[in-house]
């Protein structure tokens, strides 16, 4: 399984935008070149969150000579780093070469090609191929795809320069797309989907090779691998109703993947409601209704490698 950006089927763990594709298993049958434009469009929808995070990081970190995006997908976030830190070199790391091709093309198009590189391979081992230690290593929802997350954190920390910062995007709050009462079915559908998705996520974690159960206290885990001065900040994505087409497409995609992943756990009424929400011909569908929005919170944890 490639650890860079597999599709997760829910938003309770905030696996959205290009990072959603991370949770697909059996990646050999995924056409990454075909998927890349959609992943890029989703990442662009979430740019406000990343821009907020980068503005915060700019005040928290030393000027990094090298920024590494560990699990970069098609490079939207890596290019935002290149823009936010104009003196830094940026390396996008991913297990899918077609996505890295997209990242390189994006960097060239935006004028960052001379200080933008890519590295193809599996996390965390591929990081050993970096020519220089990182001043800032960004890992957005890539760590929880490693069976032993503590060992993964230690590997991330090992690739930091002295005084370098690890920025880990994990956790947050479940995304919401629709009112509690949809006018069809029983109110509270998304809350019930959250429960099923949490169960799905627990099974996914348990099935990873070498899976080790860990309390998800990320600052404590970063301290356990020798990093210091932990900080935490959350950022809000608020795309109000009526959602623009890009946000609406993201909601359709997210609900469709939820239907495929956990729909069998719903009762008949909830399955029927979800099917109506996904039916373009139904006036109550997310394709057509005016009350579709995207609201979610994303949490970034930072820690520094001692000098």
Order of helices and strands: HHEHEHEEHEHHEHHE
What's the overall geometry? Answer: globular
| Helix/strand class | alpha/beta
Largest sheet: 7 strands, mixed
SS field, number of helical segments: 9
CATH class of one domain: Alpha Beta
Q: CA-to-CA gap between the ends?
A: 35 Å
Work out the radius of gyration.
19 Å
Number of strands: 7
CATH domain fold name of one domain: Rossmann fold
The name of the CATH architecture of one domain is 3-Layer(aba) Sandwich
The CATH superfamily of one domain appears as Vaccinia Virus protein VP39
Helix content: 25-40%
- The pLDDT mean sits at 90
Q: Your description of this structure?
A:
By secondary structure, the chain is of the alpha/beta class. It is 38% helix and 21% strand. The protein contains nine helices and seven strands. The protein has helices at 32-45, 47-60, 76-84, 97-110, 149-158, 189-207, 218-224, 245-262, 268-278; strands spanning 66-70, 89-94, 116-120, 134-140, 160-176, 228-239, 294-304. The protein has a seven-stranded mixed beta sheet with strand order 3-2-1-4-5-7-6, sandwiched between helices. Helix 2 (47-60) crosses helix 3. The two termini are 35 Å apart.
């Amino acid at each position: 399984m490639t650890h860079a950006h597999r599709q997760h089927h829910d938003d309770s763990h905030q696996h959205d935008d290009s990072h959603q594709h991370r949770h697909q298993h059996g990646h050999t049958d995924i056409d990454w070149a075909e998927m890349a434009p959609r992943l890029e469009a989703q990442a662009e929808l979430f740019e406000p969150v990343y821009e907020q995070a980068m503005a915060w990081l700019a005040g928290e970190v030393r000027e990094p000579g090298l920024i590494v995006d560990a699990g970069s997908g098609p490079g939207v976030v890596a290019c935002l780093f290149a823009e936010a830190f104009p003196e830094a070199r940026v390396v996008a790391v991913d297990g899918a070469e077609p996505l890295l091709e997209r990242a390189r093309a994006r960097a060239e198009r935006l004028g960052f090609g001379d200080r933008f590189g890519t590295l193809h391979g599996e996390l965390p081992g591929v990081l050993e191929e970096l020519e220089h230690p990182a001043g800032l290593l960004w890992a957005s929802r890539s760590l929880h795809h490693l069976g032993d997350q503590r060992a993964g954190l230690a590997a991330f920390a090992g690739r930091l320069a002295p005084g370098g910062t690890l920025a880990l995007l994990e956790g947050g709050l479940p995304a919401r797309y629709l009112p509690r009462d949809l006018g069809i079915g029983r109110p509270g559908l998304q809350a019930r989907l959250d429960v099923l998705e949490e169960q799905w996520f627990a099974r996914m974690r348990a099935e990873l090779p070498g899976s080790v159960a860990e309390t998800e206290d990320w600052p404590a885990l970063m301290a356990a691998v020798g990093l210091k001065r932990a900080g935490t900040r959350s950022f809000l994505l608020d795309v109000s109703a009526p959602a623009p087409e890009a946000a609406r497409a993201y909601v359709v995609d997210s609900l469709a993947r939820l239907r495929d992943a956990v729909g069998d756990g719903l009762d008949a009424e909830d399955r029927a409601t979800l099917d109506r929400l996904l039916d373009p011909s139904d006036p109550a569908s997310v394709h057509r209704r005016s009350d579709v929005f995207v609201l979610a919170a994303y949490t970034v944890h930072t820690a520094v490698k001692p000098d």
